[in-house]
Write a structure and sequence with these properties.
By secondary structure, the chain is mainly α. The chain has 2 domains: 87 residues, no CATH class; 122 residues, no CATH class. The protein is built from 7 helices and 3 strands. Strands 1-2-3 form a 3-stranded antiparallel β-sheet. Strand 2 and strand 3 form a beta hairpin. The radius of gyration is 17 Å and the shape is globular.
């Protein structure tokens, strides 16, 4: 919702919602500025955390007015979430090593589910952070996430994006539900990677699969 209000400001120039958007975007940043406040540990998923980070990243990309200097800035928030999620990479039993679980905490239902929205958001953030900052490490993470998503079967040869897989059986089967937001986060990330190659890093070799 608040990402939508950032879009609204960018495309219309109407700033009447800016203050409430900033207030909302800062309310749940938590002690480590990574949208992982202690009051939501009972239900926080990697995708939930990433949705806030992607809105903060949009704010940075659009030059949405930054918070006061004593508050975390938009780019910092997105980077903090991405860095936090790198620590959870491959923390599962998938036979193809890699990927993020849906839920963060083992006591939550869905902890064993390794889904495309969590990994697609991570891919999306890596590509966009790489483009925004010029830091090759983000691009390498994005490439690794795409390659893993293909290898584990979340993205098939026809570019259909399946909803997820179960780490309890080694992630060998896919849940063949399809949702537009799963496709959307990968599509946006892939478009960003294409822009990185064409305009920012002509020596970077993009896989033919993008």
């Amino acid at each position: 919702m608040f990402g939508g209000l950032i879009d609204y400001w960018y495309y219309t120039g109407d700033s009447q919602y800016n203050d409430i958007t900033t207030q909302a975007m800062l309310y749940q940043v938590g002690d480590k500025d990574n949208y992982e406040p202690s009051n939501v540990t009972a239900q926080l998923g990697n995708d939930d955390q990433a949705f806030w980070a992607m809105s903060a990243l949009t704010a940075a990309e659009y030059n949405f007015p930054n918070p006061p200097p004593n508050q975390p800035q938009w780019l910092h928030l997105a980077q903090a979430v991405f860095q936090r999620q790198t620590t959870r990479w491959a923390n599962n039993e998938c036979k193809v090593q890699g990927g993020l679980r849906w839920q963060i905490f083992p006591f939550n239902g869905g902890y064993d589910y390794v889904n495309s929205i969590s990994n697609g958001c991570f891919f999306n953030m890596g590509a966009r952070l790489g483009k925004y900052t010029g830091n090759q490490t983000y691009i390498e993470w994005a490439e690794k996430t795409w390659d893993w998503s293909v290898a584990v079967g979340l993205i098939d040869s026809k570019y259909r994006v399946w909803d997820g897989t179960d780490s309890r059986n080694g992630c060998i089967d896919q849940n063949n539900l399809q949702w537009t937001y799963n496709v959307g986060v990968y599509l946006y990330g892939a478009a960003t990677m294409w822009n990185v190659v064409c305009f920012l890093s002509p020596t970077f070799l993009l896989p033919d699969s993008y």
